[in-house]
Each structure stands twice: as C-alpha cells, then as structure tokens.
Amino acid sequence: MVIILIRTVQYNLSKLRDVYLHTTCLATLANMAPHVHRLSAYASQRLVSLFYMLSRKYNKLVELRDDKLQTKAISTGDGLVEDMSAELQIYTDFLRIVLEILNAILTYALPRNPEVVYAIMHRQEVFQPFKSHPRFAELLENIYNVLDFFNSRMDAQRMDGEWSVEKVLLFIINNCRSWRGEGMKMFTQLHFSYEQESHPEEFFIPYVWQLVLSRCGFSFNADAITLFPVGMHANKEIYYDEMNTNQNGELNEQRVQVDP
Asked: Which of 13, 146, 190, 236 has the highest count of CB atoms within 10 angstroms of its CB?
C-alpha cells in the first residue's frame, strides 16, 4: 500500500499535477504511519525519495519566484509571483506532511522498522538544506536525533573492512534494541478524515467521465458532451489544474490549505 501511494504521488507530480490527488495520497500515508510494521527496504527508500522529489520541486519554485522578484521585467510579474508563492505554500505543506510521516514512524515504530532508519541514514544529505527552515526545523530535530544516535554508535564501532549494506542493516537492527527515544519531541499523531460536502456528484461525475474520455480509447461525439467543457479535450487530454478548482471534497483536521 505504501509503495502504491508513493508511486501515485510521484506519477502525479511529474504528469498530472492534481493537488487533490497529492493531498489524498499523503493523508492516507500519514494515517498509516504510526502503525507501520517492518516496512520493506524498497518502500522505505521510496518514502525518503518522495521527500527528495518534493524538495526539488520546492527549490525550483523558490528560484523562479526569487528571479521574478528581482527582475519584475514584465507587467504581469506581480501576479505571476503571487501564483508561484501560492504553489510554493502548497509544496511547503506537502514536504511538512512527509516529514510528519517519517516522524510518526521514528517516534512510534522505530524498533519495528530498521529499513526506514537505514533509508534515512543512506540519504541523510537530502534533509540538510531544510534544517533551519521555520516550518520544518522542529520535525527535523527528531530525524537528526535518530541520525546522531546511530551515526555516533557506528563511528565508535571498529569494523574489519568496509561497511556493506548487510553489515549496516544488521548494526541498525542490533542498536534498535537499545533505542529509548531520548530527546525525541512528541507530536500529536496525524489523523486526516475525509469530509464529503453536499452534492459531491457535481465534482465526481464530471471527474470520472473526463478520465473515461481521456483513457478508454473509445470515440465520443464531442458536440454531445454537456458534463464538462469540451474544449478541455481537444487532444483527449485532461487539464487537471483547471479541474481542481471544482472539487467537492476536502480533508479536515491537519488540513493542507488549497485555494478553492
């Protein structure tokens, strides 16, 4: 389930860019996080890679926004900067949720998930640029507490030859037994619930039929379509960013704020 949700987010990030789908998948992962047990090596690696992918998108948006702020060369620059800032806020929220997912696993289920510890140690450099970020600093403190605990013990252990993957994993498993969580900040467990608004069919019926039209390979008479704007499907493609403005479902409790 973790792998499927992460792959969905990654595909959505590169192809569809549907904020609604991002939010739902990340919320599902967050609900599962405190109960993760023996997460596989691949799933653990993909979870850390998800943070890296979102961070690259975040950094790209920061650079674009800063360039526009410096140049202001075009008349629409202010509006463009405002749009970038809004999108940047969305990705800030997404990154925070991924950090909260990792925190929940490390806080409530670390001894049961040595592969997650290994994945974080293996890619610990991806977290470094965000250590002083005001939205992420407190969450990264816990991650670095875990890293310090295992790194210091690894440095202190004399090893014949180089550290192999198997040796590092065995080392983590053995040291998980002495992990007591000292210095870890306890955050409230994330809990997302789906709240369906009145008349959800106004969103879901056009949404489903747009998917059908774009994916099924059947021919439809475009002049007869009245459920949604036909112009959106000139090339049998869906513009999901436009579709997001009409969504009739939202997540409450620990919401990610998305413009309606």
From this structure: 146
